[in-house]
Amino acid sequence: METLSTYEDTSDQLINKGKSHFMVPKDTLPHLIDMFQEIIGFTQRESPINYLVCPLYIGRQRIIYYSDLVAKVVKKISDWHSRILCFGGKATLIKHVLQSIPIHTMATISPPRTTLQYIKRVTADFFWGMDRDKKKYHWASWESLSFPYEEGGIGVRHLNDVCTSLQIKQWWNFMTKHSLWGSISKSQVLPEV
Protein backbone atom coordinates (compact mmCIF):
# COMPACT_ATOMS: atom_id res chain seq x y z
CA MET A 1 0.00 0.00 0.00
CA GLU A 2 2.97 2.27 0.66
CA THR A 3 4.20 1.66 -2.91
CA LEU A 4 0.76 2.42 -4.33
CA SER A 5 0.59 5.58 -2.24
CA THR A 6 3.98 6.66 -3.58
CA TYR A 7 2.76 5.98 -7.11
CA GLU A 8 -0.34 8.11 -6.52
CA ASP A 9 1.76 10.98 -5.14
CA THR A 10 4.30 10.99 -7.97
CA SER A 11 1.92 10.39 -10.88
CA ASP A 12 -1.11 12.40 -9.68
CA GLN A 13 -3.23 9.36 -10.57
CA LEU A 14 -5.51 7.75 -8.00
CA ILE A 15 -6.06 4.01 -7.77
CA ASN A 16 -9.72 3.08 -8.08
CA LYS A 17 -10.22 0.62 -5.22
CA GLY A 18 -13.62 -0.37 -6.58
CA LYS A 19 -12.01 -1.69 -9.77
CA SER A 20 -8.92 -3.15 -8.12
CA HIS A 21 -8.59 -6.76 -7.03
CA PHE A 22 -6.08 -9.13 -5.52
CA MET A 23 -5.46 -12.82 -6.12
CA VAL A 24 -4.05 -15.39 -3.73
CA PRO A 25 -3.20 -19.08 -4.09
CA LYS A 26 -6.03 -21.52 -3.35
CA ASP A 27 -4.47 -22.79 -0.12
CA THR A 28 -4.33 -19.34 1.51
CA LEU A 29 -5.92 -19.29 4.94
CA PRO A 30 -9.27 -17.45 5.16
CA HIS A 31 -8.17 -15.17 8.02
CA LEU A 32 -5.23 -13.96 5.87
CA ILE A 33 -7.59 -13.15 3.00
CA ASP A 34 -9.84 -11.19 5.37
CA MET A 35 -6.79 -9.31 6.69
CA PHE A 36 -5.69 -8.43 3.13
CA GLN A 37 -9.15 -7.12 2.28
CA GLU A 38 -9.28 -5.03 5.44
CA ILE A 39 -5.83 -3.51 4.97
CA ILE A 40 -5.84 -2.78 1.24
CA GLY A 41 -9.57 -2.34 0.58
CA PHE A 42 -9.53 -4.39 -2.64
CA THR A 43 -11.81 -7.32 -3.33
CA GLN A 44 -10.53 -10.83 -3.93
CA ARG A 45 -10.85 -12.42 -7.37
CA GLU A 46 -10.29 -16.02 -8.34
CA SER A 47 -7.60 -16.82 -10.86
CA PRO A 48 -7.65 -16.28 -13.81
CA ILE A 49 -8.78 -12.75 -14.58
CA ASN A 50 -8.48 -10.88 -17.85
CA TYR A 51 -6.65 -7.57 -17.90
CA LEU A 52 -6.40 -5.76 -21.22
CA VAL A 53 -7.45 -8.98 -22.99
CA CYS A 54 -4.58 -10.94 -21.41
CA PRO A 55 -5.23 -13.63 -18.82
CA LEU A 56 -3.59 -13.14 -15.43
CA TYR A 57 -3.36 -16.31 -13.39
CA ILE A 58 -1.57 -18.03 -10.56
CA GLY A 59 0.15 -21.31 -11.37
CA ARG A 60 0.82 -22.93 -14.68
CA GLN A 61 -0.64 -21.89 -17.99
CA ARG A 62 -3.83 -23.60 -19.16
CA ILE A 63 -5.52 -23.61 -22.52
CA ILE A 64 -8.88 -22.62 -21.01
CA TYR A 65 -7.42 -19.23 -20.01
CA TYR A 66 -7.25 -18.32 -23.71
CA SER A 67 -10.82 -19.31 -24.58
CA ASP A 68 -11.84 -15.64 -24.95
CA LEU A 69 -9.12 -15.13 -27.57
CA VAL A 70 -10.23 -18.21 -29.52
CA ALA A 71 -13.88 -17.17 -29.21
CA LYS A 72 -13.11 -13.79 -30.80
CA VAL A 73 -11.53 -15.46 -33.82
CA VAL A 74 -14.37 -18.00 -34.14
CA LYS A 75 -16.99 -15.23 -33.85
CA LYS A 76 -15.38 -13.24 -36.66
CA ILE A 77 -15.32 -16.33 -38.87
CA SER A 78 -18.94 -17.22 -38.08
CA ASP A 79 -19.98 -13.65 -39.00
CA TRP A 80 -18.33 -14.10 -42.42
CA HIS A 81 -19.67 -17.59 -43.21
CA SER A 82 -22.94 -16.27 -44.61
CA ARG A 83 -21.12 -14.14 -47.18
CA ILE A 84 -19.96 -15.39 -50.51
CA LEU A 85 -16.25 -14.59 -50.59
CA CYS A 86 -13.61 -15.48 -53.15
CA PHE A 87 -10.24 -16.88 -52.06
CA GLY A 88 -8.61 -13.45 -52.46
CA GLY A 89 -11.20 -11.86 -50.17
CA LYS A 90 -10.75 -14.60 -47.59
CA ALA A 91 -6.96 -14.24 -47.74
CA THR A 92 -7.27 -10.50 -47.15
CA LEU A 93 -9.60 -11.00 -44.18
CA ILE A 94 -7.28 -13.63 -42.70
CA LYS A 95 -4.12 -11.55 -43.06
CA HIS A 96 -5.54 -8.23 -41.94
CA VAL A 97 -8.27 -9.16 -39.44
CA LEU A 98 -7.97 -12.70 -38.07
CA GLN A 99 -4.21 -12.68 -37.65
CA SER A 100 -4.25 -9.29 -35.95
CA ILE A 101 -6.68 -10.37 -33.19
CA PRO A 102 -4.11 -12.28 -31.07
CA ILE A 103 -1.22 -9.83 -31.61
CA HIS A 104 -1.70 -7.88 -28.36
CA THR A 105 -1.89 -11.07 -26.31
CA MET A 106 1.17 -12.55 -28.03
CA ALA A 107 3.11 -9.32 -27.48
CA THR A 108 2.60 -9.54 -23.73
CA ILE A 109 2.49 -13.27 -23.01
CA SER A 110 2.91 -16.44 -25.04
CA PRO A 111 -0.29 -18.43 -25.49
CA PRO A 112 0.03 -22.23 -25.49
CA ARG A 113 0.96 -23.79 -28.84
CA THR A 114 -2.30 -25.75 -28.74
CA THR A 115 -4.26 -22.49 -28.76
CA LEU A 116 -2.26 -21.15 -31.71
CA GLN A 117 -2.70 -24.48 -33.55
CA TYR A 118 -6.47 -24.33 -33.01
CA ILE A 119 -6.64 -20.77 -34.36
CA LYS A 120 -4.60 -21.90 -37.38
CA ARG A 121 -6.92 -24.87 -38.00
CA VAL A 122 -10.08 -22.76 -37.74
CA THR A 123 -8.56 -20.15 -40.05
CA ALA A 124 -7.56 -22.78 -42.62
CA ASP A 125 -11.07 -24.26 -42.53
CA PHE A 126 -12.49 -20.79 -43.17
CA PHE A 127 -10.11 -20.25 -46.09
CA TRP A 128 -10.96 -23.54 -47.83
CA GLY A 129 -14.65 -23.35 -46.93
CA MET A 130 -17.36 -25.51 -45.44
CA ASP A 131 -20.07 -27.49 -47.22
CA ARG A 132 -23.10 -28.33 -45.02
CA ASP A 133 -21.01 -28.16 -41.85
CA LYS A 134 -18.33 -30.42 -43.35
CA LYS A 135 -14.84 -29.21 -44.10
CA LYS A 136 -13.86 -28.95 -47.74
CA TYR A 137 -10.66 -30.54 -48.96
CA HIS A 138 -7.55 -28.45 -48.26
CA TRP A 139 -5.74 -28.27 -51.60
CA ALA A 140 -2.52 -26.93 -50.08
CA SER A 141 -0.97 -27.03 -46.62
CA TRP A 142 -0.98 -23.95 -44.43
CA GLU A 143 2.83 -24.01 -44.59
CA SER A 144 2.63 -23.68 -48.40
CA LEU A 145 0.14 -20.82 -48.11
CA SER A 146 2.44 -18.98 -45.72
CA PHE A 147 5.08 -18.43 -48.41
CA PRO A 148 5.23 -14.94 -49.98
CA TYR A 149 3.41 -14.33 -53.29
CA GLU A 150 6.69 -14.54 -55.22
CA GLU A 151 7.24 -18.08 -53.90
CA GLY A 152 3.74 -19.38 -54.60
CA GLY A 153 2.00 -18.64 -51.29
CA ILE A 154 -0.54 -16.07 -50.21
CA GLY A 155 1.55 -14.47 -47.46
CA VAL A 156 -0.30 -15.56 -44.32
CA ARG A 157 1.80 -15.67 -41.17
CA HIS A 158 2.49 -18.55 -38.82
CA LEU A 159 1.27 -17.44 -35.39
CA ASN A 160 4.04 -19.49 -33.74
CA ASP A 161 6.63 -17.47 -35.68
CA VAL A 162 4.94 -14.18 -34.77
CA CYS A 163 4.87 -15.22 -31.10
CA THR A 164 8.57 -16.15 -31.18
CA SER A 165 9.53 -12.87 -32.84
CA LEU A 166 7.60 -10.88 -30.23
CA GLN A 167 9.35 -12.81 -27.44
CA ILE A 168 12.73 -12.01 -29.00
CA LYS A 169 11.71 -8.36 -29.26
CA GLN A 170 10.88 -8.31 -25.52
CA TRP A 171 14.23 -9.94 -24.76
CA TRP A 172 16.05 -7.41 -26.93
CA ASN A 173 14.28 -4.45 -25.31
CA PHE A 174 15.08 -5.77 -21.86
CA MET A 175 18.73 -6.44 -22.63
CA THR A 176 19.40 -3.12 -24.40
CA LYS A 177 17.21 -0.67 -22.47
CA HIS A 178 17.18 -2.03 -18.93
CA SER A 179 19.28 0.12 -16.59
CA LEU A 180 21.09 -2.91 -15.21
CA TRP A 181 22.35 -3.82 -18.67
CA GLY A 182 22.76 -0.27 -19.99
CA SER A 183 26.55 -0.34 -19.79
CA ILE A 184 26.86 -3.53 -21.87
CA SER A 185 27.40 -3.01 -25.57
CA LYS A 186 25.02 -4.60 -28.08
CA SER A 187 27.78 -6.86 -29.42
CA GLN A 188 28.14 -8.40 -25.96
CA VAL A 189 24.38 -9.00 -25.67
CA LEU A 190 23.87 -10.84 -28.98
CA PRO A 191 24.35 -14.60 -28.81
CA GLU A 192 26.98 -16.11 -31.08
CA VAL A 193 25.70 -17.59 -34.31
Give me the secondary-structure topology.
Elements: H1 2-11, E1 21-22, H2 30-40, E2 43-44, E3 49-51, E4 54-56, H3 67-80, H4 87-96, H5 103-108, H6 113-128, E5 130-131, E6 134-135, H7 142-145, H8 159-177, H9 186-189
Parallel strand pairs: 1-2
Antiparallel strand pairs: 3-4, 5-6
Helix pairs in contact: 3-6, 4-6
Describe what you observe in this structure.
The protein has 193 residues and is mainly α. 49% of the residues lie in helices and 7% in strands. It contains nine helices and six strands, in the order H-E-H-E-E-E-H-H-H-H-E-E-H-H-H. The radius of gyration is 22 Å and the shape is elongated. The mean pLDDT is 83.
Q: Quote the average pLDDT.
A: 83
| Class by SSE composition | mainly alpha
Shape: elongated
Classify the beta-strand content into a percent band: 5-15%
Number of strands: 6
Give the low-confidence spans. Answer: none
* Helicity, as a percent range: 40-55%
Report how far the terminal alpha carbons are from each other: 46 Å
For the biggest β-sheet, the strand order reads 1-2
Main sheet, how many strands, which sense, barrel? 2 strands, parallel
Number of helices: 9
Oligomeric category? single chain
What is the alpha-carbon Rg in Å?
22 Å
- Topology pattern, helix = H, strand = E: HEHEEEHHHHEEHHH
List keywords for this structure.
193 residues; 2 domains; two-stranded parallel ribbon; 9 helices
